[in-house]
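Take our chain:
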Amino acid sequence: MTEPTDAPPMPEVAAEEVAPPALIPEDPMEVLQKQLQEMKDKYLRNLADGENARKRLAKEKQEIVSFGIENIICEFLPAIDNFENALKLADSASGDVKNWAVGFQMILNQFRQVLQNYGITPFQSTGCLFDPNYHDAVETAETSDVPEGTILKEFSKGYKSASRTVRPARVSVARAPRKAVEPDPDPIAAATTEN
């Protein structure tokens, strides 16, 4: 038997009124607007991704082309060095050689113009501090006349572009003189005198 309680009876609620929120049908217009907004967001993101990819590919293409041009021009730099060295010697030569040298100077100027057109410039190293990004030390010389690490002589010019060193300069670098080390006394003679 059940005992009566003093609690008020619970009102009966229709099953349709207590339906979970997920089962309540939404307005079809709101659903379509949400879907439309999601599609717009996806479209804009994909459009931005495509634009970024296009810019990145264009930049990479330009870098590859520049790198290729710099590498090809690097192959001509020894010939330019030889022209410059030959023209230095031509100043002390006979008249016929000097006439030829004028023509070679014109050719050298054309080579230099090509380098300039592609943004490749020589840089001066003598008297500067050694920097492994720009210089290749092929010789060191002891001296106290200049600070250690100063470039004393340039054997071949270095060339650079706006973005990298095309060819490092080959240089002679100063180093501090070594201190004279006094020889140790003869250990055998020292041992015999102690005994």
